[in-house]
Fold this protein.
Amino acid sequence: MAAASSSPSCTFCQIARSSTTTTTLLYTDEKVVALRDINPSAFRHYLVIPVEHIATVKDLQRRTQDYSLVSHMLNVGQTLLSRDAPTSIQYRFGFHQPPFNSVNHLHLHCLALPYVPRWKRLKYSSLGPLGGFIEAQKLLERLKP
């Protein structure tokens, strides 16, 4: 991964490095942390972020290291939602792509639907060649070595 290991001004780096006390972590290990989205778009909306600072999906490459990280992020998100929202009607897992990402630190959106409110589903739509939202499985296909 080409990005720096940590960015002092990055909010997500501060959360991942436990330098903030206001964020409750749902999961943590040496590679990722998971937390509730502060502006949820669904019944349950979690973020899984890598501890290492990686700016966006555009910084990921077709190699084992990046494929393994995204796969692990997805596994953590799936595990959390199956535990916390077992009766949800549908789950969505994916990433916003530049210029549509809100924070320049890679983060997986883990959504247990329905969307709340319903119009928020628009934020999680693919815009084809313009980017938008990319499903985690589609990103994994792109990264598979």
Residues 64-84 form the longest helix (21 residues). Helices lie at 11-16, 64-84, 136-143.
